C-alpha cells in the first residue's frame, strides 16, 4: 500500500461549480490528527478533506481557514468562514466530514 497522499476534486453539484481542484484526503487517524499542521499555507484551489470529523480544532495553526462540514450524503451542514487559530468547532450537527 502506498503512503502517497490521495487527491480529489470537490464539486458543488447544485451549482455546477468546482469548489477545490486539489483536495488531499485525510482518512487515517494519523492524517486526521496532523491535518494542515505541516502546511505553511493553503493556496487557492487546495484543501483537506477530513473524513469522519464532525468537529475540528485550530490548535497550533498559523493561519485561518474556511471550514465546510458535510453530511454522509454529501450535503453541506455548516460553514465556518475565517476560522482563526486556537479556535474549536464542536460537533457540527449532521456532519460526517470536514473540508
Major sheet: arrangement of strands: 1-2-3
Low-confidence stretches: none
How far do the termini sit from each other?
25 Å
Main β-sheet: number of strands, strand sense, barrel status?
A: 3 strands, mixed
Can you describe this structure?
It is built from 1 helix and 8 strands, in the order E-E-H-E-E-E-E-E-E. The protein is mainly beta. The protein has one domain: Protein of unknown function DUF192 (Jelly Rolls), CATH 2.60.120.1140. The strands form 3 sheets. The protein has a 3-stranded mixed β-sheet. The protein is globular, with a radius of gyration of 13 Å.
Protein topology:
Layout: E1 7-12, E2 17-26, H1 29-34, E3 46-50, E4 56-57, E5 65-70, E6 76-83, E7 88-89, E8 97-98
Parallel strand pairs: 2-3
Antiparallel strand pairs: 1-2, 4-7, 5-6, 5-8
Search tags:
8 strands; 99 residues; Jelly Rolls; mainly beta; three-stranded antiparallel sheet; three-stranded mixed sheet; globular; 1 helix
